[in-house]
Amino acid sequence: MVRYKRWLSLWASAAALMAGHAHADEITFWVRASDSGFVSPVVKAWNDAHPTKVNLTVVPNDDFVTKFGTASAAGAAPDVVAIDLIYVPAFAAAGQLADITDEAKKLPFYQSLSPSHTRLAQYQGKQYALPFSAESSMLLYNKTLFKKAGLNPDQPPKTWAELEADAKKITALGGGVKGFYFSGACGGCNIFTMTPYVWASGGDVLSQDGKTATLDNPALKGTLAMYRRMWEAGEMPSSAKTDSGQNFINAFLTNKVGMVGSGAFSIGLLKKDHPEIDFGLAYLPGKDGQWSSFAGGDSIAVPVSSKHKAEALDFIKWCLSEQVQVDQFAKNGSIPVRTDLASNQYSKLDSRYEIASTAMAQGHTPYSTKFNQLINDPNGPWLAMIQEAVFGKGVDVAVSTAQQRFTQILNAQ
User: Fold this and answer.
1) Share above pLDDT 90 across residues of the chain, in percent, rounded to a whole number
2) How would you write 272-301 as a 3-class SS string?
3) What digits encode the pLDDT tens for the residues 171-208?
4) Overall pTM > 0.85
5) Which of 107, 175, 173, 182 is nearest to 139 (CA)?
6) Which pLDDT band, with edges at 50, 70 and 90, does 331 fall under?
7) Please, what is the Cα angle at 188 between 341 and 391, to 5 degrees?
8) Beta bridge partners of 59
9) Mean pLDDT of 211-229
10) Greater confidence, 12 or 226?
11) What is the mean pLDDT of residues 320-344?
């Protein structure tokens, strides 16, 4: 009888597990440091309302890819992870993320999710992540400097020629004021803020499937030539050449820079910490009047080694719910990752948020399993090209070399 009861007990436990009734008291969640500001309140809101608690770990930005890769290889990854969307193809290809295709497609708002996030989370026809946080690149400009330079503060540049003309007039104000700024030694910053000029002018840096380098095109060469002309004319601070991203936004905060490529995050930052700066947001212009944006941000995924996949998916679905997207993300100055929520009670208070949401929904994002080697590596070919084209020997030689190095990396097994 005792043996029978023990067998019954074991059978019941197994049945509960198979039915998904085993309930975790806690799930672990890793995010990169740059996300901690908006993620902490989201996690607190979940923990206040749910029996399964989320244990948040913040990982330094530069360590994230290595730390997650190492943990995954050891079977010690967290239950949930938020990853810069550009790394999802590589992690999916490496077999480190769980296939969540069925769960994703059952979401009633699946078709309204950020197109770039959704596309980069797919590998060989399966879905390995969902959007978590949204970012988009735009032109940030100082309305006060525009007025002082005799420019209309409500008419930001819509072509390359207008951008250069505006930069020239703003620099002419003197006193250390410069028309344009970019972080010249930061690969990631420039895929975010420079490539939209290329896309909006009919060019690209990679093929749609990410397997072929397409750098040798007039749009990319023209963008680099425009940057070089502004640099040689003294329309950028000299510090731009060596800025590895530390002053990506800080240069604009001095009130001495007319225009800079930036992201949606700058809206909340400027409104909260720098109310003295009268700023505008515009789309990053193409050569002849089109515009584009880099659709960035993070995707959220369940690592393949997660012991609590059901709870992890519950948390992910909750993050994407209308209530959380509006009352946690939009309310605190982030743009929602759902295009059906781009216009909400908070965005209506400041039209700049709606510009940022439109940019995200219509923006582009390069798809590559080798993004880190190509773009983000400080010794990689993308940054070497920018440095040579803008500050060195010139555009043609820089693009030619980069095309070769991209192709070598893409063809390597």
Assistant:
1) 83
2) HHCCCCCEEEECEECCCCCEECEEEEEEEE
3) 999 999 999 999 999 999 999 999 999 999 999 999 99
4) yes
5) 182
6) confident
7) 135
8) 32
9) 98
10) 226
11) 91
Q: How far apart (Å, rounded) are the C-alpha atoms in residues 285 and 138? A: 9
Q: Distance (Å, rounded) from C-alpha 350 to C-alpha 179?
A: 26
Q: Confidence band (pLDDT; 50, 70, 90) for 23?
A: low
Give residue 222's pLDDT.
98
- In sequence order, what are the residues at sequence separation of 6 or more whose Cβ sits closer than 8 angstroms to the Cβ of residue 314? 52
Q: Which amino acid is at 149?
A: A
DSSP tally for the chain: helices H, then strands E: 19, 12
pLDDT band at 34 (very low <50, low <70, confident <90, very high): confident
Helix (H) or strand (E) holding 141: strand 130-142
Cβ count near 192 (within 10 Å):
26
Q: Which of 45, 121, 109 is nearest to 83 (CA)?
A: 121
Query: What pLDDT does residue 274 have?
Result: 95
What is the chain's percent helix, strand, coil content, to nearest 5? 50, 15, 35
Quick check: 90 and 371 in contact, CB under 8 A? Answer: yes
**What radius of gyration, in Å, describes the C-alpha atoms of the chain?**
23
Rounded CA separation 296/131 (Å): 10
What element of type H or E holds 131? Answer: strand 130-142
Assess whether pLDDT exceeds 80 at residue 9. Answer: no
Instruction: Give the angle 138-335-363 at the CA atoms, nearest 5°.
Output: 45
> Structure tokens of 220?
């990319």
Structure tokens at 191: 């895929």
**Does the pLDDT value for residue 101 go beyond 70?**
yes
What are the CA-CA distances from residue 83 to residues 29, 126, 192 (Å)? 11, 17, 16
Nearest 5°: CA angle at 44, between 41 and 50?
140
Q: Which long-range contacts (CB under 8 A, 24 or more apart) does 110-116 make?
A: 112/338, 112/339, 112/340, 112/341, 113/320, 113/337, 113/338, 113/339, 114/295, 114/297, 114/337, 114/338, 114/339, 114/360, 114/361, 115/295, 115/339, 115/361, 116/85, 116/295, 116/360, 116/363, 116/364, 116/365
Chain-centroid distance of CA 351 in Å reads 21
Pairing of strands 291-292, 279-282: unpaired
Asked if pLDDT for residue 300 goes beyond 50, the answer is: yes
